[in-house]
Amino acid sequence: MSKLLKLLTLFTPIVSFSAYSAPFILSEKSLNDLAQKGAPGIEQIEAAFLNASVREGESNQRFAPELFGRASYAETNERAIIQFQPIFSPIKQAQLGVRKNFKAGVDTSLYVVSDQRSAQSPVLGKIQNATTTTLAFTAQIDLWKNLLGRMTKTEWETANLEKKRAEIEKDIQVKAFRISLRRVFWALVANNESTKISEELLKTAQKQLEQSKLRFKNSVAEADEVARYQAQLSSREGTLLFLQYQKETLLKQLRNLLPELAEKEIELADYDLAGTFNEVLTCTATISQEKAAPYKYTHYDEAVSLFKEIKSNLAKMNSRYSDIDVKLFGTVRSTGVASDAVANQYIRGNYGNTIKDQTEQNRTGYEVGLNFNLPLGSIKENTKKVKELYDEKRLSASIQSTDAQVISTHQELSKSIKLLMEVIKAQKNSSEQLQLRLNLVRKKYEQARVGVEELVFDQDALLNSQLMTIETQLQILNTLFDYLVIYTETPCSFNRI
């Protein structure tokens, strides 16, 4: 057993050294720098923006020119059903063209089609490379539902508006994510301040317990005094354990936001609590100068404007959802054929002669027609009503809630901060008075004029007052953070993102 312990002793420093890594020094700047490297939360926000960009791209690509084509080669050994019917083999076909759709509701294409085939016919003899070449231009115009492109233009505009809205939303959400990191940082600072106060009071409780045990040993104190100090010590230890639990919860939250910290030890950097609180007061004073909601400091008003435009566009599209679809189409084509008799029962053609046939002769033809699509029954009309109701409720709710949030956030900030500052003032005054009373009670206790219960009660009251002051200060910070999530461009030093 002793040999095993010696081996473990030898290997322990090596393991400890290999497992050691420099701790991450936690500050607002280090968190911001780490987030810029690509936090999952920011990547999800950017992915949502890219999704809107994809939809805009899909809308735009409908109006981009497009080259299309097709080529095929076919052979067969079948025989004709009727003796004099030729069986063409091989058959070579090709098509190449350009297609362009316009926002005005016009679809066009220009293409060339070539067909070359050979056959052996008992009646016609040998046919070698009989060739047909067609040059055609087609156009299709919407006459009702999308007349002059009123649908396609609206769809295109909506896709662009959605992208702009998504870009604004991305900027807002990225800043909100970074503020969430700052919230965790200052919550850890508050936890650290509370821990320092509790540790000092724990030391006092330990000292008092030891003194009471000594007095009890010397028959100066009763057993209930020792028990009371023991209970106070346990209470102080419980407070510290709970603060440690809060710290671990905050660190877990931080590691979830920044997985790069998952396996790192985290240490708080030095911080200037008083300086930061002065920045908060200065920032609050700057904000309080704005009587009405300062839209110049937020992007939410732009988002609301875009929501209204999107709502208007969707209403237009929904109103035409179940309309009849009528389109006028036309094609102009020129077809050249090359299948010349070279000798008795021998016909031959080529590509060049098909072009020559078109240029030397008028081989032009055209086709004009109408296509229409008329929904029967009430299914499409019912769907239209549901779409109109859905878009109306969805976008109206977004517009109203965003407007209300922008206005109420500004109106309530000054009131909330003012009330919380009054709370802190009262708590500090309370702590000062409790400290003064504690000093007096401690003297009376040493003179055996008051009992231990009164001394412990006053010590607990002072601790609770000090911890509540820290919590209120944290609440002030969070209230300002709530404001800066909406008014991201507020010009004050505390708004450092």
Task: Please give a handful of descriptors for the protein shown.
497 residues; alpha+beta; Outer membrane efflux proteins (OEP); 2 domains; eight-stranded mixed beta sheet; two-stranded parallel sheet; 61% helix; elongated; disordered N terminus
Q: How would you describe the overall organization of this protein?
A:
- It is a single chain.
- This protein is α+β, with helices and mostly antiparallel strands and 497 residues long.
- The chain has 2 domains: 292 residues, Outer membrane efflux proteins (OEP) (Up-down Bundle), CATH 1.20.1600.10; 124 residues, no CATH class.
- 61% of the residues lie in helices and 19% in strands.
- Strands 2, 3, 4, 5, 7, 8, 9 and 10 form an 8-stranded mixed β-sheet that branches.
- The protein is elongated and about 140 Å long.
- The protein starts with a helix and ends in an 11-residue tail after the last helix.
Radius of gyration: 41 Å
Please name the fourth-level CATH homologous superfamily of the largest domain.
Outer membrane efflux proteins (OEP)
Q: N-to-C terminal Cα separation, in Å? A: 59 Å
Main beta sheet, described? 8 strands, mixed
How many helical elements?
A: 10
Shape: elongated
Structure class: alpha+beta
Summarize model confidence as the mean pLDDT: 82
The CATH class designation of the largest domain is: Mainly Alpha
User: What's the helical proportion of residues?
Assistant: 55-70%
Q: What's the SSE pattern?
A: HEHHEEEEHHEHHEEEHEHH
